[in-house]
Specification:
With 558 residues, the protein is of the alpha/beta class. The chain is 36% helix and 19% strand. The strands form 5 sheets. Strands 1, 2, 6, 7, 8, 9 and 16 form a 7-stranded mixed β-sheet that branches. Strand 1 (2-9), helix 1 (13-23) and strand 2 form a beta-alpha-beta unit. Bound molecules: flavin-adenine dinucleotide (FAD). Flavin-adenine dinucleotide (FAD) is lined by residues 9-15, 33-36, 38, 41-43, 45-50, 129-130, 153-154, 188-191, 201-202, 205-206, 209-210, 240, 339, 361-363, 376-379, 382.
């Protein structure tokens, strides 16, 4: 059996930040397991930037206030405080580690405006910030000699007596399953955007595997009903155009040529928070002021020079995927699934209810984003809590003996995958994935009715049954992406169910969860976290308190 003190699952920003932290500490054997090469992680697709109070006129307290208000007051303020306090040092650390951030004329780090922020505080590298950060952290990981198991797919955690003992992973190249013993496991597996297959900005690999594995291991998933929709995605394929477009001064127009955000968030205009801008777009479209099911993002007035300096990715993506050159024409956009506010419930150090099991990054719910994340707070979240999880895990493993776990887990996973390969039904995994994506997009979208949510719960449960008859077509061992796809769809259906059941239960509107039958926020009954535990026949919901320290809930106005 392979053995390490700490195994990090995932090599996006959260996983690599944890690896670099542990790589600097003496006497700990650390490895990363990732189903992708690290540089292909979805973090590399992040465009707009990373938040930190960097300028003399900004304060971390202001960043905290904006984040708490943006979250619709259901974030935990102790966690938000940690993130915002530690943000400036983290951004400078990245800069010293080699990230070439854009600069202002005086040589300090340039910052841009972003949604829901009281003032500009987003540091950036043109519109390829995630790409730049991921390369920096990968270099730093390689420099520390951290072992990486590349293209190894983690299928299950090994947990005995509420303590993690390691995991089971499929080496995709050979098709062999391995049990890996570990004193601590840090889950950094990212989001589940592909649950909204076809209507998401997320990579094909964002299938929520780590959330599903933790859920199966008895860890509650928190606040899964809060799903972020980004206001500017392309209609044909969900590809994202960064909020940086509006941060640099871009307009949103309806079919009458009006900057319609003046009606919805008049003080912020296009830079309202994402939940409100997405709702405004849907209202405009539903009331007949859309353009072919979209609204228009107009950056023409910024001029070609600025577009090429700060938003070259937007131009390239628009030309390739929408056939529109934004230097000359506005781009049709609409809301698309973008981010998971919910995830594996953790404390400020990534600790879960299972001893030795940590979670960080988009797969975790610390909770700093509450019901609605502010743009450019996620890259920050991955780094701060990736590092903190690693620091805590380092102390934890010092006092834990090498784990002794039975190899029955390996046997179980071998049996499970063999059974998947042996299925002979007539269902198709691809078809089920498409149906799941449409179901979630149509019925668990920006606005939700009880009928829609009930429809989603039933439809997802039906798909969970049907998938049992969906054969894996490729029977081979080597690079069997049909098999990993089958493992992923089971994970996604599990999460889709938790999202839908949690949403149906929450009878209020808060942040990204907007119900037509309960249009108002209800602090008396619902200022609390949803905690979904896996039970017989579906999730069992409990609720937990929200930590409020500095800012009492107020009506959200922008
Ligand atoms: C297009 C786009 C643009 C964005 N722009 C911004 C932005 O400008 N600013 C901002 O703050 N946020 C942005 N976000 C959000 C942010 O990028 C993500 O939330 C964040 O990068 C997630 O990082 P992560 O480390 O948690 O996970 P990821 O980067 O998604 O990495 C997940 C890792 O887990 C591994 N993994 C997953 N499942 C398994 C498994 N079963 N076995 C083994 N390994 C596994 C993968 O191989 C991968 O290495 C953007 C997101 C998208 C999609």
């Amino acid at each position: 059996m392979l053995r390490h003190d700490v195994v990090i699952v995932g090599a996006g920003l959260a996983g690599l930040r944890a690896a670099v932290t542990l790589g600097d500490l003496p006497g700990v054997d650390v490895a990363i397991i990732s189903k992708l090469h690290p540089l292909r992680s979805h973090s590399g697709a992040a465009e707009g930037g990373i938040n930190a109070a960097l300028t003399p006129d900004d304060r971390w307290e202001d960043h905290m206030y904006d984040t708490v208000k943006g979250s619709d007051y259901v974030s935990d303020q102790d966690a938000v405080e940690v993130m915002c306090r530690e943000a400036p040092a983290e951004v400078y650390w990245l800069e010293h580690a080699g990230t070439l951030f854009n600069r202002a004329d005086d040589g300090t780090l340039a910052i841009r405006n972003f949604g829901g922020a009281g003032r500009p505080r987003t540091a950036f590298v043109a519109d390829i910030t995630g790409h730049a950060l991921l390369h920096t952290l990968y270099e730093q990981t390689v420099a520390r000699g951290v072992k990486v198991y590349e293209e190894w797919f983690v299928t299950e955690l090994v947990v005995e007596n509420e303590q993690v003992k390691g995991l089971v992973a499929l080496d995709v190249m050979t098709g062999e399953l391995h049990q890996v013993a570990a004193k601590a496991v840090i889950m950094a597996t990212g989001g589940y955007g592909r649950v909204y297959h076809g209507r998401t900005t997320n990579a094909w690999s964002s299938t929520g595997d780590g959330m599903a594995a933790a859920y199966r291991a008895g860890v509650p998933l928190a606040d899964m009903e809060f799903v972020q929709f980004h206001p500017t995605t392309l209609k044909s394929n969900g590809v994202l155009l960064t909020e940086g477009n509006r941060g640099e001064g871009g307009y949103l127009l309806n079919s009458l040529g009006e900057r319609f955000m003046s009606k919805y968030t008049p003080t912020k205009m296009e830079l309202g928070p994402r939940d409100m801008v997405s709702r405004a777009e849907i209202i405009e479209i539903n009331e007949g002021r859309g353009v072919d099911g979209c609204v228009l993002l107009d950056i023409r007035h910024l001029g070609e020079a600025k577009i090429m300096e700060r938003l070259p990715g937007t131009r390239e993506l628009s030309m390739h995927f929408a056939g529109v050159d934004p230097v000359y024409e506005p781009i049709p956009v609409r809301p698309g699934q973008h981010y998971a506010m919910g995830g594996v419930r953790t404390d400020l150090n990534g600790v879960t209810v299972v001893k030795g099991l940590y979670a960080a990054g988009e797969c975790a719910c610390v909770s700093v984003h509450g019901a609605n994340r502010l743009g450019a707070n996620s890259l920050l979240d991955t780094l701060i809590f990736g590092r903190r999880s690693a620091e805590h895990a380092y102390e934890y493993v010092k006092n834990v003996p090498p784990p002794e776990a039975s190899e029955s887990y390996l046997q179980r996973e071998e049996d499970r995958t063999r059974a998947m390969l042996g299925r002979e039904g007539t269902e198709s995994i691809a078809q089920i994935r498409n149906e799941m994506g449409l179901e979630m997009a149509d019925n668990m979208g920006v606005f939700r009715t009880p009928e829609q949510m009930q429809h989603a719960v039933s439809a997802i449960r039906e798909l969970k049954e049907r998938v049992k008859d969906a054969p894996v077509q490729d029977k081979g061992r080597i690079f069997n992406t049909d098999l990993t796809g089958a493992l992923e769809i089971e994970n996604m259906l599990e999460l889709a169910e938790v999202i839908s059941v949690g949403a149906l239960a929450r009878t209020e509107s808060r942040g990204a969860h907007s119900r037509l039958d309960f249009p108002d926020r209800d602090d008396v009954n619902w200022l609390k976290h949803t905690l979904a535990f896996r039970g017989e026949g579906g999730p069992r919901l409990e609720y937990g308190p929200v930590t409020i320290t500095r800012f009492q809930p107020e009506e959200r106005k922008y």
